[in-house]
Structures are given as C-alpha cells and as structure tokens.
Amino acid sequence: CESCSKEEAKYRCPRCMKYSCSLLCVKKHKLALSCNGVRDKTAFVSVNEFTDLNLLSDYRFLEDVGRTADAAARLSTMHSPTTKKLLYALRNKARRCDIDLRTLPVGFTKRRENSTTFNCLEKKFYWHLKLVFPHCHAEYTLKGVPDDKTLADILKPYIDPVESDPVVCQRLKIYTVSPQSDVQILMKIENRKQNSVRYNELDASKSLLDNLKGKIIIEYPTLFVVLKTLKKDMVILGQ
C-alpha cells in the first residue's frame, strides 16, 4: 500500500494508478493527491505504452462523442438564427474587452450550462462561473456574476472565516483555517497539449474582467482555488 506502507495492496486507483489496501487509505490518497478516482479517458499515453486496451478505450470514447453530436444535431431549437445571433454578439462584446471567448458546438455540456449574458445598458458582463476547490473535491457554480466584482469578494461566501456560509465553511475547512496568503486562484490555459497543462495565476484584488483580459475562455471561466503548500501537479505558466 502506497498510503500506509504496512498492508498488502488490494486496490489500484484508475486515475493515478496508486496502490491502496483499504477504503481508508483510498480516501487518504485522494485527499493527498487531489485525485477523484475517475479514469482520465483523455490522458496522454506515449506511443511506446499504447496498447490494444488504449485503442479500445479511444474507440469507445469517440463513439460516445458521435452519439452526443448526433443527438444535438436533432435539437432544431438550438440551431435557430436568434441563438446564433446572440452567441455572435456575446463573442463580439468579449473581443472588445480583449477576451477571446469561444463557444462549443451544440450538445456539449458547457454549451448547455452556460448562462453568461451581456447587459447593453450597463455595458457589463454577467458571467456564468465555476469554482473548483480540489483539496476538498468541491465544485460550486455561480450565475450572473458581474465582471466588475473582485475575485476576493467572489470567494468571501466560501472561504472567509467570518462571512462564509457555515455549511460551506465546514466543507471547505482546510481553506478557511489556512492563511489568506496561502490561497491561490488559478485558471487553466486553453489550447495547450494534453501533456503540457499550465495555469495562469489570477490576482484576487482585481476584478473578474481584469483577470480575464488577454485570455482564452471556452464558454465560461473555471477558477481553481488551491493552497500553495498542497498543490502538486498544477504548474503555473513560467515555472
């Protein structure tokens, strides 16, 4: 067992391939490595390690994608001129703010979830936003987040020891008891190779709009809230 180094291993994690002997050790390794235990179907595999099982897995993955795309193509309401016009206007407004906003084809989960809008009177984005707390395996979805709100204010209801919701605070206890200087907000850099994932570090004191400028956003921003002392494989660009 790679967690306790005492008992004979009985299980192997499908995602990180770590050996464990019991449910307790499985939970320990998930917490220590921020692992969700779900096999990554798109993980990089070198040619030397590529086997028939990898080929079969890729084939089934592509079959699932084909079925999803075919089902989406049958939804005529999603192909209406009005929907396309709104998406074009949203991307155009983002471009003027120096944000490369990209939308996915119909049928993708993020396309279906996205509720981002632009208020023409206020000249302001109201973003659909996802917060990921990997050390606690927690995710929260926010809707209608104004682009002039600072990241610090966005995170207050979650990790602030005083202002956060008691239930959320208990679940994210590892964040609330840590000093604020140890908290980092990261966003994955899009359009990079699968084996070269990098993150941008965001400034909590700046607004959401300022942090998104000059970056590629696919549908909506996903922010990873991590602790400097615990993050392992999340490499910041330039490091």
TrEMBL record:
Subunit description: Interacts with FBL, SNU13, NOP58, NUFIP1, RUVBL1, RUVBL2 and TAF9. Interacts (via HIT-type zinc finger) with the RUVBL1/RUVBL2 complex in the presence of ADP.
UniProt protein name: Box C/D snoRNA protein 1
Keyword Metal-binding annotated: yes
Similarity section: Belongs to the BCD1 family.
Pfam families with a match to the protein in the record: BCD1 (PF25790)
SUPFAM superfamilies in the record: HIT/MYND zinc finger-like (SSF144232)
Keywords associated with the record: Isopeptide bond, Metal-binding, Phosphoprotein, Ribosome biogenesis, Ubl conjugation, Zinc, Zinc-finger
GO molecular function, one term: zinc ion binding
Any single biological process term in GO: maturation of LSU-rRNA from tricistronic rRNA transcript (SSU-rRNA, 5.8S rRNA, LSU-rRNA)
Statement: the UniProt record of this protein carries the keyword Ribosomal protein: no
GO terms under cellular component: nucleus; pre-snoRNP complex
PROSITE patterns on file: ZF_HIT
Cited function: Required for box C/D snoRNAs accumulation involved in snoRNA processing, snoRNA transport to the nucleolus and ribosome biogenesis.
InterPro entries for the chain: BCD1 (IPR051639), BCD1_alpha/beta (IPR057721), Znf_HIT (IPR007529)
Domain HIT-type: 1-35
Domain of life according to the entry: Eukaryota
CDD domains according to UniProt: zf-HIT_BCD1
